[in-house]
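Sanity check

After download, print the first record. It should look like this:
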Amino acid sequence: MTSPGDSGKREIWPLWEVFIRSSRGLSHVHAGSLHAPDETMAVRNARDLYTRRAEGVSIWVVPSSAITASDPDAKGSYFESAQGKEYRHATYYTESESVPHL
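Expected structure tokens:
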């Protein structure tokens, strides 16, 4: 709802991606997204929204605009196996007798 002095436009806050680490030693996992005016409020809102039962020990927030992702439609060529590229695997190479620490 707008007040009489408003121009009728609403400010849209940036979208943030939220990552939560549930306990020490584990990786952060994407928990969801939220809108917030800045990183401080994004962390606070993420805490309130995604860790209500004290299930987290660390929160990361990242502006969605800062994330670059691969194209899901190109997954076949992008993630295909490295068949015919044995040189990419350690088993392709032989041990060197002249290097004692390997």
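If your output differs, re-run the checksum step. Summary of this record's structure: The chain has a mean pLDDT of 83.
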